[in-house]
User: Fold this.
Amino acid sequence: MIKNNATEEDQSKAEERRARGEFVRGVSGFRHSIGDPDFPPEPGRYHLFVALNCPWCHRVTLARAVLGLQDSITMDVAFPNRTNEADSVGPNLWEFAPDRIASLTGTTLPECTLETGTGDGLRLAKEIYQCEGSDEQSVPILYDKIGGRIVNNESAEIIGMLDKHAEALGGAAHRPTLVPDDPALQSDVDALNKRIYVTINNGAYKAGFSSDQAVYAQAFEAYFETLASLEALLSDGRPCLTGDAFTEADLRLFPTLYRHDPVYYLRMKLNGARILDYPHLWQWLCRVYALDGVADTLPPGLFWTVVE
Assistant:
């Protein structure tokens, strides 16, 4: 497995850094690809396990939607809050619990589902991993229903393989190409992906979940430096980050910026500015929101009460 700093965080001295109070994101353990001999690209074969409040899941559900794969890749949705201390299996686990009552509304959440991908009606995402001898418990999970195996649980890689095999998987005829064919444009997308991951996607967690003041300050500064840079990039009137076409860079940025004003501004201590304060970024956010399928990936109002 080759480390990609647009996909995952440097793990050097990870435990030492965590001990000092730095948030260090772990590495996903399942890294197979659609297109491998065991995982042929076929409509109806693959399934996603997601939580709608999770931004890493959101980028995957966005890819599924904009590529027109909703009918050919099935999906289960976990409850937005994980299990608590009172649960018999313990706290902090994603569960598929459509009958669970939301504390703010006093009702069930219609978007939440039972687990249907494995055929075993499992309650916890952790149990899907346990079937393969793994102690992981994260979402998203891309699952092969025919082989009964986890394909991949790294969101950035899932996006790439859905895009690469969209036609064979049954995607829409008129769909964007998230990874451009043009080498120069691909280089621009790659550079944006790297910066957006380090300073925005993961940077928000560095600010919000690290107890080390120096780490927080560095993450805070980098986050808003990147917002200013992206604002300048969009100031020439381009509709998307690399020009006219919606690419993977736009898709990766959207889940974090969509959450910034209502959630991350306070929850992640990123109160230097709102996206509303950046007119070009705000207009970009609205344009992406208006794309076919994007609004369908957004969680209902209860989303704003939780953050993962």
About this structure: Residues 302-308 have pLDDT under 50 and may be disordered. The chain is about 40% helix and 5% strand.
